[in-house]
Structures are given as C-alpha cells and as structure tokens.
Design brief:
The protein has helices at residues 9-22, 29-51, 80-96. The chain is mostly helical and 97 residues long. It has a domain at 9-51. The radius of gyration is 26 Å and the shape is elongated.
Length: 97
C-alpha cells in the first residue's frame, strides 16, 4: 500500500482481502479487527451506493406515471424480443430514411 501514492477504495479493499486470505488460519486479535474493518468498509460502500441509486430530482423515474397496456382480442401474441425487434426496426427506418 505504501507504493501507491493515492490508494483508491478498491486498492484498500483488495489489500484487506489479501491480508485476510493470508491469515485465514490465524485467530489473532489483529485478524478479528481487520475482519471488522472489512465489514465496515463494505457497509460504508453499500450505504454510499444506495444513497445515489435513485434520483431525487423532478426527472426521477419513480415520478413517471405508468401507461397500462392496450390490446384487443385480435392483437397478435408476440414474444418480448419480437416486440423489441419491431420497435428497433421502426426506429432505424425513421433514422435511415
């Protein structure tokens, strides 16, 4: 770790993991402390990830009203990939036209 001028989070986690692997057969207090530190790092990273998972702005996808599907008894039965392929073909024909 001393060789890295500005260690990133990934570098710290990797070093901690490697140390835990190397001391897997040990029951020392240092290993227990390192294990706790590793757990705290993971919890901190998870909390950070969850904080920015959804937007709080007016553009949040959670604020979009859903549109129910509209179909009739005569509507064709298609697989999902067929619907996506048809939509892609229509979009690409508009772009290329």
């Amino acid at each position: 770790m001393n060789a890295i001028p500005d260690p990133l989070f990934r570098d710290v986690v990797e070093t901690v993991h490697n140390a835990l692997v190397l001391t897997s057969d040990s029951d020392s207090k240092a290993k227990v402390d390192l294990f706790r530190f590793d757990k705290e790092l993971k919890e901190e990273k998870e909390a950070y990830y969850k904080r920015f998972l959804f937007s709080d702005s007016k553009h949040s996808p959670l604020l979009v009203e859903g549109t129910p599907a509209q179909y009739s008894e005569n509507s064709p039965l298609l697989m999902g990939y067929e619907i996506i392929n048809n939509a892609f073909d229509k979009c690409s024909s508009v772009i290329l036209a």
